[in-house]
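ARCHIVE CARD
CATEGORY: sequence design from structure
SOURCE FIELD: tokenized fold
FIELD CONTENT:
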């Protein structure tokens, strides 16, 4: 980083430390005077409060590097920061590079030969630190001063009390060592970095190795780094970052390679890998790369939270359409205990299998470097539209347009106008998870947030417990003869109930079509309507075929299904609407601005309360909260009284920045409501189910 130097035109700041609640900084010198024609080493000393940290030149997955703006006498020049080797700071699946406790940032200052001995000079620097904790980040700007005399050219200046600490940083900081480096991206997308040279050639191997890139987006900072070593050097396997995944390797990659023998700056040129970097053994993991000790107590706590969250999920609005189907299934098998128990177990199997598949896919994508969270599949217009067509097909089945799993001879039996027995119960479980996927319930959010930083096996256990919670009420009733006996016996009323239950499914299909339109524009809505029409025609023709119609129904039905699939294929070619456009058109509450970390910082700098709403159009709970609470007169009045700022982070379309912010607060999905009070260190997290009074009172408390 190049630092600026300018002649001082303002009164210099007072020498000595300057502080905020998070950090104390001081401009210090290695020597007690400056020698004309030499290099003076100054340093910005940071004393960081426990629980907070600042950042290296590449902050990693979040944060921002410290910047220095110098005011020096004319002719004096400041060089680049000599960056100490950073710490790796894992946080909720992310990896940042930075510093904690006490750290010195040395900077060489060129002293002109014409500097007059005996002159007392005022030196100053304005330092901008981004100081972060696990909950929040605050930009702290401090202006630091130092009075320093110019000594005689023939005298050796005395060292200060900071000299040994600064010297230790200069000696241990990464430095060039004449190493040769090459980097290549393989056909599987993985990066391989090879480093050769004397500094990495050791008979016993290079020791623990880690690569810190100078630029973000080149590698996935949170991914493990593995490799081999040989007689000429070493080879590291690196997961690519967002820039490389999007555009490949655009040029040389600079960074720092740390080994058991020290830390060295390298510039890796794209090209063929050299020989002699394997055959000696596997590289040892650098400190912090090995898996963190797994605590069984943490798994038990997360699993119990997931179980409770799954139980509460049954009460969330997004699951209402399927709840009615579950109730009807119970009533149908109420007086057949064996069938009821079978349906209960098959419904549980459908829920658990679907949760397992979704969880495995999400964890796999995250391991590959994708920023995804719970409900990620509904950020794709094709998936949303496919789910809309699925619920339409279920509705048409309930309306009797066609039948599944029955012979033509059984058409007159009302109780067979559904998926047969256990198969139908399994499918209902699958559908329940598909419809519930946009939701997060109380306790569920914390459990999923914990699961995303656990080993795969433990994470899948948490997801299975969540599915168990969702299915448990249905299973409990299915295995309770006393409760089943209280349900009415099957009769003609079940036909009417079955037809009535079709309409919640139609409503769900319309809502999902609207969500897809919000993601990719009106074109996807038109294609969705065409696909829905063709699917309805195909299913009607199937029903006619079941009733004994001719072969023409099979031919026309097949053509209709082909048209449905063609419409879905065309949707994949549509560009998604940007997050800004989606937010601007959303009726998400009071007058809203688009969320960004910078917008939060700017509003907080003005001393205003900030209410942040992380939402998505496919999140039913989010929409209900916005209509019932956030758009209420009480909330608007409270925001006017306190001059609060309202920011909306729209996750309808995939947004990695929002994904990272959710993870920073231990969440894997929406809704998330944050309320920042002026001067408070961390935001208040509001409940996932809001009332106008609760939100208005919280805003007034923040404003006071």
């Amino acid at each position: 980083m190049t630092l600026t130097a300018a002649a001082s035109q303002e009164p210099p700041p007072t020498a000595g430390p300057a502080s905020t609640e998070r950090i104390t900084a001081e401009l210090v010198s290695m020597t007690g005077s400056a020698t004309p024609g030499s290099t003076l080493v100054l340093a910005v000393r940071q004393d960081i409060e426990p629980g907070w940290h600042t950042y290296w030149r590449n902050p990693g997955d979040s944060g921002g590097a410290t910047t220095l703006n110098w005011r020096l006498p004319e002719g004096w020049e400041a060089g680049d920061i000599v960056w100490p080797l950073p710490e790796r700071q894992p946080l909720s699946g992310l990896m940042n590079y930075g510093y904690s406790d006490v750290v010195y940032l040395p900077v060489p200052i060129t002293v002109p030969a014409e500097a007059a001995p005996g002159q007392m000079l005022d030196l100053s620097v304005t330092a901008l630190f981004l100081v972060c904790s696990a909950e929040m980040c605050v930009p702290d700007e401090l202006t630091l001063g130092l009075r320093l005399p110019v000594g005689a050219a023939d005298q050796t200046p005395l060292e200060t009390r900071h000299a040994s600490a600064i010297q230790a940083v200069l000696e241990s900081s990464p430095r060039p060592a004449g190493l040769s480096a090459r980097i290549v991206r393989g056909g599987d997308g993985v990066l391989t970095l090879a480093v050769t040279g004397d500094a990495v050639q050791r008979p016993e191997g290079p020791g623990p190795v880690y690569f810190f890139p100078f630029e973000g987006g080149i590698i996935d900072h949170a991914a493990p780094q593995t490799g081999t070593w040989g007689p000429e050097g070493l080879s590291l396997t690196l997961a690519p970052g967002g820039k490389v995944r999007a555009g490949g390797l655009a040029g040389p990659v600079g960074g720092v390679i740390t080994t058991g023998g020290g830390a060295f700056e390298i510039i890796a040129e794209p090209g063929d890998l050299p020989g002699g970097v394997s055959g000696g053994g596997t590289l040892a993991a650098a400190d912090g790369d090995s898996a963190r000790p797994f605590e069984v107590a943490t798994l038990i706590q997360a699993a119990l939270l997931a179980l409770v969250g799954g139980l509460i999920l049954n009460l969330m609005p997004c699951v209402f359409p399927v709840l009615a189907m579950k109730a009807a299934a119970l009533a149908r098998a109420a007086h057949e205990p064996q069938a009821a128990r079978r349906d209960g177990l098959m419904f549980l199997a459908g829920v658990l299998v679907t949760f397992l598949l979704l969880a495995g896919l999400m964890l796999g994508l995250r391991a590959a470097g994708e920023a995804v969270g719970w409900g990620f599949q509904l950020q794709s217009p094709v998936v949303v539209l496919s789910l809309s067509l699925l619920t339409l097909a279920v509705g048409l089945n309930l309306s009797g347009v066609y039948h599944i799993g029955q012979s033509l001879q059984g058409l007159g039996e009302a109780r067979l106008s559904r998926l047969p027995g256990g198969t139908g119960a399994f499918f209902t479980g699958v559908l329940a998870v598909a419809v519930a996927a946009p939701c997060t319930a109380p306790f569920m959010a914390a459990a999923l947030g914990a699961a995303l930083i656990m080993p795969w096996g433990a994470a899948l256990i948490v997801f299975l417990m969540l599915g168990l919670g969702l299915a448990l009420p249905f299973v409990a009733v299915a295995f309770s003869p006393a409760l089943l006996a209280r349900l009415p016996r099957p009769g003609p009323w079940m036909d009417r109930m079955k037809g009535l239950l079709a309409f919640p499914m139609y409503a769900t299909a319309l809502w999902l079509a609207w969500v897809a339109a919000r993601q990719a524009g009106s074109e996807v809505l038109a294609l969705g309507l065409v696909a829905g029409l063709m699917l309805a025609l195909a299913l009607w023709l199937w029903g006619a075929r079941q009733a004994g119609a001719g072969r023409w129904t099979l031919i026309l039905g097949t053509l209709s299904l082909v048209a449905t699939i063609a419409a879905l294929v065309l949707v994949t070619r549509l560009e998604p609407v940007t997050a800004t456009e989606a937010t601007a058109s959303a009726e998400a509450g009071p007058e809203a601005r688009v969320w960004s970390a910078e917008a939060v910082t700017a509003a907080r700098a003005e001393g205003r309360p900030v209410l942040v709403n992380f939402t998505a159009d496919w999140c039913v709970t989010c929409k209900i909260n916005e209509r019932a609470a956030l758009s209420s007169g009480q909330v608007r009045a409270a925001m006017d009284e306190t001059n609060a700022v309202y920011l909306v982070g729209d996750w309808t379309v995939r947004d990695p920045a929002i994904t990272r912010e959710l993870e920073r607060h231990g969440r894997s999905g929406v809704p998330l409501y944050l309320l920042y009070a002026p001067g408070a260190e961390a935001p208040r997290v509001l409940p996932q189910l809001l009332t106008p009074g609760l939100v208005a009172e919280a805003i007034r408390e923040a404003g006071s």
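CARD ANNOTATION: Confidence is low (pLDDT under 50) at residues 1-9, 289-293, 406-418, 578-588. Residues 58 and 611 are 30 Å apart (CA to CA).
SHELF: design records, drawer C
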